[in-house]
């Protein structure tokens, strides 16, 4: 674990908002020179605090107007391995995220679909036919606000 000071936190918050900022731009936002900001960024990357950059797609602009969080409880009678289930669900292109969770459900999926009818087809034809799929609960995303995190 790395010790973060206030300037490190400022740098990280700025990067969470816009990961394309250069070291010079980050330095100007945080009151540092470009070389000082670059050194701090390098230290944060080397420590593992920064692990890559992420591209955020506009799903609606790409034709995917519905996002659903789907809880799946595995059917205990099927004796399917977690690895087999994860492999099968990860092969479905509309599944954006697979999380193995603790609680009522075993997995939480983030799924995109063109509309609710498209999601229903996906649920019936692809998700419910997965090895080990049991009880499901769907939650349709109404809105989303990206927050900078706990820094």
From TrEMBL:
It comes from Pontibaca methylaminivorans. GO terms for biological process: response to amino acid. GO terms for molecular function: sequence-specific DNA binding. SUPFAM superfamilies: Dimeric alpha+beta barrel, Winged helix' DNA-binding domain. This is Transcriptional regulator, AsnC family. Residues 4-65 form the HTH asnC-type domain. PANTHER family: LEUCINE-RESPONSIVE REGULATORY PROTEIN, TRANSCRIPTIONAL REGULATOR AZLB. Keywords: DNA-binding, Transcription, Transcription regulation. InterPro entries: AsnC-type_HTH_dom (IPR000485), Dimeric_a/b-barrel (IPR011008), Tscrpt_reg_AsnC-like (IPR019888), Tscrpt_reg_AsnC/Lrp_C (IPR019887), WH-like_DNA-bd_sf (IPR036388), WH_DNA-bd_sf (IPR036390). One of its GO terms (cellular component) is cytosol. Transmembrane segments: none annotated.
């Amino acid at each position: 674990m790395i010790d973060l000071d206030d300037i490190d936190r400022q740098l990280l918050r700025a990067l969470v908002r816009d990961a394309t900022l250069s070291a010079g731009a980050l330095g100007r936002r945080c009151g540092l020179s470009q070389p000082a900001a670059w050194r701090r960024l390098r230290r944060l990357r080397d420590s593992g605090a920064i692990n890559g950059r992420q591209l955020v797609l506009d799903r609606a602009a790409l034709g995917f107007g519905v996002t659903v969080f789907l809880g799946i409880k595995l059917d205990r009678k099927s004796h399917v391995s977690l690895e087999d289930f994860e492999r099968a669900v990860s092969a479905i292109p509309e599944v954006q995220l697979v999380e193995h969770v603790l609680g009522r459900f075993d997995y939480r999926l983030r799924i995109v679909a063109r509309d609710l009818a498209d999601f229903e087809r996906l649920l019936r034809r692809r998700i419910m036919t997965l090895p080990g799929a049991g009880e499901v609960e769907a939650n349709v995303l109404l809105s989303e606000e990206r927050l900078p995190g706990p820094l």
